[in-house]
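Database export, one record per block. Field names are fixed; values are copied verbatim from the stored entry.
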Amino acid sequence: MNTLPLLLTVLGIFAVAYRYYSALLATRAFMLDDRNITPAHRLRDGHNYVPSPKWVVFGHHFAAIAGAGPLVGPTLAAQFGYAPGLLWLVAGAVLAGAVQDLTVLIGSLRHNGQSLPYIVRREIGPVTGLLAMIAVLLILIVAMAGLAIIVVNALSQSPWGIFTIGSTIPIAMVMGLWMFKSAANRVVVLGPSIFGVVAILAALIGGHWFANSPFAHLLVFDGHQIVLLLCAYGFLASVLPVWMLLEPRDYLSTYVKLGTLAALILGVFIVHPQLQFPAFTPYIHGGGPVIPGKLFPFLFVTIACGAISGFHSMVASGTTPKLIDKETDARFIGYGAMLCESLVGVLALIAACSLAPGDYFAINAPPAVFAKLGMHTVNLPEFSREVGEQLAGRTGGAVSLAIGMAQIFRNIPGMKALTGYWYHYAIMFEALFILTTIDAGTRVARYVMQELMGRISRPWGRSNWLPGNLLATSIVVVSWGYLIWGGTIATIWPLFGTANQLLASIALATMTTFLVNHGKAAYAWCTLVPGLFVLVTTVTAGTLSIRNTFWPMAMHPGTALQGWIETSLLAIFIVGSIAIVGSAALRCIQTLRGVIPPSAEVEEPQSGKVALKTAAPYRCC
């Protein structure tokens, strides 16, 4: 099947959804108003709260949310055929994912830029808020592990990738100083942007030179060494001021991400690649070599971030609301960035399904499993020769996606000789995608950890207190680093997918309660319906994962500890999510019956901050 009509249809649906549905949410349900002073201005501290231009914040937000999910999830889900993944990517993003991102972002803006657990406490109740804080923290740690293990697999034994990705750190720090410190009372954008794009292209070309130089062995790392490097990077990105590394690096990454996205769209327009996969494969009934489970419910937890992601709710209530200059910017940043991420997922699915099925399964299935499928490779030996690496058995989705992207680019007239460059560029593109979620995610998890620590001693809860920052960040980084150290893509990705979707159900339930509490119950269906669907599918997938994957691991002597940890975590996630959603439903019923919600009460002001008045969408002055 020709991919061009599919892509044009998807682009049309996204345009209509942004024009009308996001406008309904922004103007009717939440009444965005630029006369409302945003937290970035009211609580400006130059460290966490920094008013920033709309496009810079969009760049940070898109880079932070667009991680492994929209790349790896659709690639792995290609096992079921192109139709199931395509339908869920489009419908899920328009009706669920973008709705969650926008509504949580607005909810955080109305709560001084605080995190999702804080919103739960203010809108539902203090006990539920504490439960949400613990559940969200655990889910975030698992999410970091699920995202980071993709980078570990992609960069292992790859000096080219390490050189290019590592170069983005000093480039971003130069950009940060130039953007935020070179001129008084304004942010410089044009000069640093040009510098960043030129520098990263130079790093890509330089990576090829370095990989073929006598010094290449200095950047050849195994999986465990890369885990340590990722932990060090996550630590730095969390404790340094947001303008110094995290925000400029995410902004820089957005140029690469959106540029590659545009190039892929152009490549599809020029090449018109044919989908080699059928609409549905026999594996929809289960027993697949990549995803053992059936289409329902495992498609939804596999696609993950490309359609809806609970991790996004933490970015939307973590770093992003502390940077927004005007309240109406939330629509473009929240809803628009999610549509862009879903488009990335659609293009990843097209790239994967344009491979010959034999090549796809030879990459994504272990060699022993592929040998039993009765399939044969078509172009894989040629691809391996052109990129200079052995591609068979490179499971996890990253390599097959890179080959799919390279295949589209190499079919553009005059580009076939550059296949090796396109492949390594795609690997760099994927790693850059994922690292921007690791840095933002670690910082957001640090915020949540400090909120939890602040319940024990108030100074530990201050986000601008260095000892609290260091301790909270250390706990978070060591936790997700441990999960990667002893895990594999086969064990961590299902855990991540399930935990991530459960967090989305918590976020949508919380924003349903927000709408009811603030007199907008007529629009509560916008968050209620997708929230219930995500909860049902994810609880089903989680229960099956415990029964079929993690419990057998716990019963095996060699994997007992890892199995018990992952079984326990997933069970806690399921029970906690059901309890929080149930509490949200009870609060909605009470509010509709006339009981005053917790958000109507004035909370005791914190040192250096304004008092938190009623959290309704009214002007603050």
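Remark 1: Confidence is low (pLDDT under 50) at residues 605-621.
Remark 2: The CA atoms of residues 298 and 541 lie 6 Å apart.
End of record.
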